[in-house]
Amino acid sequence: MENSSWISDILANPFLRGLSIGLLIAFILWVRGWLKARELNGNLKKLREHLHTKLEIDSAENERRKGEMDKIKQERDNLRNMVQVLNQKPGRQELRQVQVYQKAIEIMFEKSPGFAPAWQITVKEAEEEIKRAERGIIPFFKRMTSSNPGSEKPSKKQLELEQSTGH
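Request: output the structure for the sequence above.
Response:
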């Protein structure tokens, strides 16, 4: 019976009753905090793993992109070199110059309304002059240089061929 009196004395004392209730509440809160901290640590581990995985994926993707960019730069340099080589081939500079002239003509057609008729007349005159040159003096020089060294006049066969081809 003494045991029950000792427990009843403790429960009857208001200070000890408050202390025991406070300790019980503190213990419950400590357990809840410990469980919450454990849960947060687990979440933190998962987030670190996700972050690590994401960084690995991003790193691999960046490496792939870097390699792809290097490959594209190499292709660009190769193409640039190829364009330079092609531009240096005979006839390429002339073609490029013709393209530049064509672009300049297009720009002049757009900017100058009176340019088009004057240009067309000039082109027709130039074409006629070239045709006359092809039929006249230039073919004559060609005939003179292509004839036999012993004869001064071209053969009838050469004259017929030149007239039939229009030269």
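Residues 92-144 form one domain.
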